[in-house]
Amino acid sequence: MSRSHPELPTTSYAILGLLAIKPWSTYELAKQMQRDLRFVWPRAESNLYAEPKKLVAHGFASASSEPRGKRRRTVYSITPAGRRALAAWLETEAAEPRWESESIVKLLFATHGSTEQLLEHLHHFRDHATARWKAVAAIFSPYLEGDEPFPDRTHVNALAASLVLDTARVEAAWADRAIGEVQKWHTTGAPQDRGSALAALEAALASGAP
Amino acid sequence: MSRSHPELPTTSYAILGLLAIKPWSTYELAKQMQRDLRFVWPRAESNLYAEPKKLVAHGFASASSEPRGKRRRTVYSITPAGRRALAAWLETEAAEPRWESESIVKLLFATHGSTEQLLEHLHHFRDHATARWKAVAAIFSPYLEGDEPFPDRTHVNALAASLVLDTARVEAAWADRAIGEVQKWHTTGAPQDRGSALAALEAALASGAP
DNA sequence: GGACACATGTAACGGGTTACATGATTTC
DNA sequence: GAAATCATGTAACCCGTTACATGTGTCC
Fold first, then answer.
1. Is the Cβ of B42 closer than 8 Å to some Cβ of chain A?
2. Which residues of B98-110 are buried (b: 16+ CB within 10 A; e: fewer)?
3. pTM exceeding the 0.70 threshold for the entire prediction
4. Nucleotide nearest to A50 (CA to C1')
5. Most exposed of A19, A24, A70, B107 (fewest Cβ within 10 Å)?
């Protein structure tokens, strides 16, 4: 697997991958990107409108004007060179995953604030995990009844979805336990009950490396 | 909780939070940031050398030259204004967590590559999760024996550590199952066994919203 | 015919990354 | 004394974000 970096940023390959499924307009691409990739490759929607043009400039996509009702709109299709570029990118070693959570850095420095404040941050974190679970479940529950937009993509989509669901679930479960723990604290300073504070860590370490 | 954005980026508050523990040199700050925050707020080390100066410019830190052996080095300390700024930042609502994984977008478009390639990506993903687990475990295992660098921070550190350990573990477990599944595939195209492909999704959805 | 959501961007700005550079200290 | 590692940055670049701008269908 080659370690040389590809000529385009990952975001471009993501939408190139979408184009490999079928032709779309920029708007559809932006929406689909939000739907399918929001939780694994989050990007602002406004950013995506420039991507198809970049792909065309590289010869990886072609633009055609199609009628839509009384108006025309530009629809992008992948080119053979685009398929080759996508395949070459797949050969390339993936960057390390990256996770950032401001809630958790606030937890780390919560000793300089109140317990109420910390509980708010933890609830916020929990709520986001739950919302993420629900958003993915809403998209993928129909799959189980055979209602899928692209049946020949079901297997990879389902695999990725189950990862996002699993991680969202443990995050929510962790948050619940953390909230329960913090509710026992009188201050955000060093707690009275050291054993309780270390319980979660002990449990997480207990079963050894995965 | 105020929604107005603070005057500095989160990275600056992270190192301000470190300074609230004790004075450090830039080098120590950079190292400590990697040690404690790498998995919740990842930043390139070279970037961190500019941060203390920014804090001084805002009046949130002060620099003093201290002897270290035969040479001098600059050590930064938090100011009262810095502590106020940190507290104000804690009042502020946290940004949503963000997770990005190029491995998973490659999984999503793996239908344009080989199964061997996909397995390599999944192994890479699994290896990173395991490495992350081990890195955190190496830092926090001593805590259980009472060996802690900052005892009055143990409770928050332990909470955050258990989250990272938990998520690393489910990621590794997911990857193992995914590898097992893909090994049954003959091609990356639509699989022969639809039920098997949907099993992980079904299991993830089974117990309902967290 | 006004309001609202849909559809499609653009301009400016900035945080962050990679790559490079260099003196000091320890190790063999 | 050479090599490696520690310690400390700088410069250039770019991806991405926020904030704005505008036409066009649709609903009441």
1. yes
2. ebbbbbbbbbbbb
3. yes
4. C9
5. A70
